[in-house]
Fold these 4 entries.
Entry 1:
Amino acid sequence: MYQTTCAGIYRRPSGYANTVLRAYYDKKIAKGKPSRVAIIDTSNKPLKIIYGILKSGKPFDLNY
């Protein structure tokens, strides 16, 4: 999860690979977390989303 998060939050010439993860990462950095701690927190975000989808049985809604 750490490697996939790193790949998702870093900027590429075409923009960020995953804008949702990048926004969450930026929020953690703004709160004063060190970079590695923010990456670990961001790595947990998709796991929480997946768990919520499996538990509720509802499809993912980005605007929820």
Entry 2:
Amino acid sequence: MLPDVGDLRSSLRVVSLPLVTRFRGITVREAALVEGPAGWSEFAPFLEYEDAEAATWLAAAIAFGWEAATPTRRDRIPVNATVPTVPSAEVAGLLARFPGTRTAKVKVADAAGHLADDVARVAAVREALGPAGRVRIDANGGWTVDEAERALRALAPFDLEYAEQPCATIDELAQLRRRTRDLAVPIAADESVRKATDPLAVARSGAADLLVLKAAPLGGVRAAAGLAAQAGLPVVVSSALDTSVGLAMGAFLAAALPELPYDCGLGTAALLAADVTHEPLTPVDGAIPVRRVVPDPDLLDRFAADADRTAWWRERLLRCHHLLPA
């Protein structure tokens, strides 16, 4: 049963957490936390998302906070480091925030940057990780097919594990995959799955070699795990710059999957300069534990959003709740 909006708003706490570096164009991450019978959960779609998309994030938050946990197959999840579009000179310092990780996801295709910047950043990551490290890139759909092909040919010498969402559309991904077969760089789909009306279209079209799944925008752990089972492709579980409460949802998704061939993008608490718990889900020996997180009251108070922002999130939650089926 869908909980009453009053139940959600009675425990609602909105936080504003500073980041260690600019990421996705922001320096502060806002998130709304709610407590249900199963524990604390998180509702944190990015601010620019419309209500129809954000409502799926609310469905995921309700499922995680009001339903019993899914059975798990592992208690630790290996994670990757995440390197935003920073100058190459800052790469080593950022990687140090992810102790023990053997994999790094490097953000590329920034609108204000150039391919030369991407090459320098990936080169710095490869040098820091050494030849045995795993380097993947994420363009967030920022390239055209021609730009993506040119970029992959420039970056392939750094032994890429895969390229995540190099182009925006499924058709573009399929074109790129055909044009770069000689490079043997697998193509991963992220936005083409979580923003699509038909998430399985990527798998059916042969546009990607693997899928990047995030629990919150796909409606929760069970929904995302069901999608993975239907798709029949290898899966990477990732996050959306969540607090440790939200990362716990991703960890339970990764723990529920029958196979986990790739390190997951669930170490992003290391990009937060503050969190809602004194025991955050930051990487230790390259992994995070699978456990629920209980926010610490003093941190909820210290990083509470101001009254206007809290009111904005309360109204957003109400609007999204109206869009959910009873």
Entry 3:
Amino acid sequence: MSARTLMLQGTCSGAGKTALVAGLCRLLARHGVRVAPFKPQNMSNNAAVTRDGGEIGRGQWLQALAAGVPAHTDMNPVLLKPEAERTAQVVLQGQVTGRLEARAFREARQPLLPPVLESFERLRGAYDVVLVEGAGSPAEPNLRQGDIANMGFAEAADVPVWLVGDIDRGGVFASLLGTLEWLDVADRRRVEALIINRFRGSPELLGEAPAQLAERGGVPVIGVVPAVPDLHLPEEDAPYRMAGPRGSGGALQVVAVAYPRMSNHDDLDALDAESGVHVRFARQPRDLDGADLVVLPGSKHVFSDLAWLRESGVAEALLRHCRYGGRVVGLCGGLQMLGEHIEDPEGVEGGGSAPGLGLLPVRTRLAATKQLAEVHGHAEWPAPVTVTGYEIHHGVTGAQEGLFPFVARSDDGRVLGSYLHRLFDSGPFRRALLVEWFALEGEGGDEQARIEAELDRLADTLEQALEPAWLEALGVPGRPAG
């Protein structure tokens, strides 16, 4: 028997689809339903490594965690990772298969539909429920032909749709109704229900508006989901905090440089969750002022981001930060930029070579084969504690001995580089590093446990906000009367 399937689409990017699918996965899993997430096409430079040796979008990793199942490449069969010059690396069923040019985007998607459906059918045969997340908005008539991310997939897989609008952005009733109006007749019939997401305030303030929307759109509004206070989950796209307030007095100031092709910025989440630590993202030289620690995150195109560092003046500000005793950590592409030299003999990023920032005594060569690995081990520095994470990189960099999980350290010990994503997630390791460098004890909590608690809060909210009959159809028992 095939699984019950449901697709959540949004009126726009950032409407909350990723979180809602994660919350529903957690809610169903708590009631004993075997549920799996699925996103046919994702465009993001935030990726995670799966146990079957591939990579998927970070959002689907989060949703798998919520469902209590191992992340698998079938959960996100097409991952597009934007690079420089209007191209994207294509990751198909977990493995790099080539590049996609923006001008050929519409035509190049159609051959990807068969493997997308193949992955979907495997999940549908293995689980009770498959929850599908759309991408962007279905109300884009210029992208409908050949679409595999929204209604094109829903039609091919014969999946019903719940449409989500974000009231926090304003204009939610117009955006939901307008999206329905843009859909052709067949696509509109697939929309079973509407959800108003991230509502702040008393429900009475909405008055008759939800009922009026249902009447005009011909689709029931099955829930108004309140904004969950201070919900902090890994983000799929934009970093959660760009340069802004410098944080409260006395907090450790961590500044991550947000170059144009930054990737895996959620590597900073665990640091930001520490009491006594304030994380912000920077794009201008002055944003580094007052930093105790500067982090260079991953990069999807190291050469262009390295050039941006120099052209923007951020590289000069970073060197000044080091001259005055500041500390720096480079992660993956950030590690490569901190080294002495980077070369690309096989044209992974178009070929060529460039001098690095010279803060670490290493050189990097980009290899055609991408290295993908989950990592579990014991740190050699700063303390022999457990550390976990994963590696996703083309770079080959000679490692200094005795530093794992770091690859290199500067002579003065103030600059470190590592290929390990989610480096700070392990509580004991994060605490050891903060103590060693800043004499800051920290809480040392496990990041995954914190995320799990957030997912439970979100699931609780959805169980109360969505109409019971619609949840019962997915396998959630009805709420007791009264």
Entry 4:
Amino acid sequence: MAGGRDRGAVPVKGRLGRTATMAGLGVRSGGRWTMSRAKRVFAGAGRVEALDAERELRIAADVVEVLGNMKGALMKLGQMASYLDVGLPEATRTSLAQLRTNAPPMSAALAASVVTEELGAAPDELFERWDPSPIAAASIGQVHRAITTDGRACAVKVQYPGVAEAIAADLGSARVVFRALSVLFPGLDPVPVVEELRERLTEELDYGHEAANQHLFADHYRNHPYISVPEVYDDLCSPRVLTTELVTGSVFEEVLNWPRRQRNRVAETIYRFSFGSIYRLGAFNGDPHPGNYLFHPDGRVTFLDFGLVKRFTPAETAQFERMLTAMVIDRDIARFRAEVVAAGLLPAEAPFDNAAVESYFTHFYEFVLEDEPRTFTPEYAAAGVRAIFEASGVHGELKKVLNVPPSLVILQRINLGLISLFAQLGATANWRGIAEELWPFVDGPPSTPMGRDARAWRESLSPP
């Protein structure tokens, strides 16, 4: 491994060390901007465009290198930025996408030492075959292929040493996180994202917790025609090692070049998994980014990484149902406002009329308001980001009084992540028809061929 990538194998530790690293990133980015601006003075129009593109690429490369080597919360922010903000320059978003699967890995010897410490024996003793080169490396750990002694192909996720300390340092210093977000989301208010990270990231550090989450989803979706969740091999798991069934498939960047029909099918599968899990299982994987999916041409999707799962109480899902009924099914804005107040989102005395409340919240329901096909576009996704983060106008004033409960914070992230992903796919479907199948309080008939297959699967699980 080349020197720069190997140095990033272990996260930079300590609040001061990580603050200094991010400060260095800011200095380098500022220097690149100053140099580019000076060159533009003597350049023609065509050359100015080339200089701007070169600057974007170099700054993006700096961000990817620093965040990839730091691991932890800051790298997680980079992963989120790669799919969340369709307004980022294409060069930046493309570079950040490398953080989803191609982050700098830890050395083979270090990964093996973690397995040995956690499971009591070296990988070569525990497994029939062990690949020392990881097949994926991300913010918390990296994944190795192996074959168990009884012949099962498996994926072994190994947590980076020191990543817990790195996350604690990041979340203990809001200024560091804010500075990182200012590079990735210029002009946006990062507080909601940082608060969610503060509450949820620590859950991802316990692979025993993740194994229990994955069991929940694997049991629920077993034998589903389109939704696949790898099985967990408990005898090869620990708090810092997670061993599961190995599944192969296409990654998101490949799917973007598939024919529209295939892209629509995988989008429908993700939609059914996302909202079907909320309303039928009372839980959802709260980290909906493309690196957590493997795609198959027939529309099947394999869902990975269950470290950050939100479990909803019956009272919470009942609240979601009442809000949906008021806004979408009955279009009763006065009742919707009352439900928003009851949910703790909006103070009862807030000085905004129902029209302002409708204007702010409609965007989050817009794709299911009408019973007709709709196509997700980059413009629609960008409007969603603005609705959450912009601080100007009546929406900005209304947002100042909103008090988002934890159950709705995670739904906000799910909505933004999925809408951005679907926009990149250019996905088209009658989302209202599919949603009515998934909402138990409607339990509508199948609206697509995939819906008929899913209904047959669900009925096969019911006792005679």
